[in-house]
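Can anyone check this?
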Amino acid sequence: MNAPKSIVWLASYPKSGNTWTRIFLANYLMNADRPVPINQVHRFGMGDSIAKTYHMVAGRQIDVSDYRLTLSLRERVLGAIVANKADINFVKTHNINGAALGVPLIPEKFTRAAIYIIRNPLDMLLSYARHYGMSHEETVTALTRIEHSNAADETTVTQFLGTWSGHVQSWTARLPYPVLTVRYEDMLEKPQESFGAMLEHIGMPVDPARLEKAIRFSSFDELSSQEKKGGFVESSPKNERFFSRGSSGQWHTELAPKLVKQVKRDHRKVMKKYGYLDD
């Protein structure tokens, strides 16, 4: 019996708007009179790299730093997600759409569709550096490494990222399932259009009033206020706040000109395609 193709991937390079997308979808689906608590968003879409799911599938506590072991369990983890027979299972991923050590990271047999969120790498790397406690120089270099990955920790297994350009190209190439690519900057500037397109992509009816409310309940002011009061389970111990700014263009004042030139040189083709080059 074939596994149901119910996974809708919410995919992005880290710090590109994935969490914001999941919080919007949670608020739209709930359609409640108050914002969904940010620490309950995982109920509406799980991640593909949550360590405890790998322990569960293995039937024991495993060493999650053993990426060969976690890769060998990946198909069973995804199979367990689709086993609930739900029509749609939202699954967050930062993995590149490819294979690691011969193991497909995004198996077609489980996949119904995907939403890919892309962000100007000049801004993304600032947020990435803060979140992971890295320097700007270290981050710029990391974005060019084919073998770049996020190391496992107590809560997360290894995530295979690759280069920023390669990641984008892997998710925006011609794939055997529909993929909607949304720019983070458009989510900021044209939220009704961007978030509405996400709903249409996954086959959900778009109710204008409900859409407006979900966008309002997912605003950075709201998310930042919730985090200030009760923290956020996805925040990093290396960074004081997860929801820090929610804006674009910070690189103009915060990123050294030589690093700006390097990023533009390293990722010119993809940046140009998505409107991130002005020269």
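Reply from J.R.: I decoded it. The first strand starts at residue 7 and ends at 12.
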